[in-house]
Amino acid sequence: MSLSCFSTTKLHLKPLHPNTPLTLNSAFLPKFQLPKLKKTNKPVVSLTSSSSPTISASLEAGVGIMATKLGMMSFFEETGTVVPVTVVGFREGNIVTQIKTEATDGYNAVQVGYRRVRDRKLTKPEMGHLEKSGIIPLRHLQEFRLQDVDGFEVTQKLDFNELFNEGDLVDVSGTTIGKGFQGGIKRHNFKRGLMTHGSKSHRQLGSIGAGTTPGRVYKGKKMPGRMGGTKTKIRKLKIVKIDDELNILMIKGALPGKPGNLLRIAPAKIVGKNIPKN
Q1: N vs C: which end of the chain shows fewer Cβ within 10 Å?
Q2: pTM of the model
Q3: Are 97 and 154 in contact (CB under 8 A)?
């Protein structure tokens, strides 16, 4: 087809006055005007600013501690209700090993060490970092990023009795149980095919996409692969019981990992209570 059959016209665009209201004209849409934008002198709040009313997702609601998962049991409340709880114990540690400030590191954080080990279990850089503050050898070091680090000192011991009370809500982080390479049924709860003699697909994955278009498998497709062994956080779990004699906590529900797994316990983030609203 020749291009000469199409006529070209020149468009003459006139500049609009700044106070002219904008309108949309169409045979398919009703005629309406867009409201004018009012200029405000309010400063733009940056999410990364320390003075921002919105706490960044990386900040904690308060300093936390590390603990060891011991196992699960049933707890009977005073009303007779049976509650499944996870028993969490504490080894030697939960000592403040370093305090980071905006002046020295660009952000406020408290580094906590947990679980005492022998000297030969740590590398020389790790030993040098702890000896600089005069602290015993500790296996695990984790940071709790806070808005303010006033009141914390190096070598200060964090006691769970002073940080938490019965009935408090906490966020618990840990590594889930590794289950190895698993199929789609176990990993993603897929349904299996017919188990009859003529079926060609019992527990197979099935079709994963068209061959011609797009000619590839999309990223993120649910397929067989490694299952478990990832870091996860379970939020807003209730502390049911605190036992000072046994030095344990009882937290309602299941926690990630097997018995003996390392857990990170911090106050739960609750908007309006310890996190200001936008």
Answers
A1: N
A2: 0.72
A3: yes
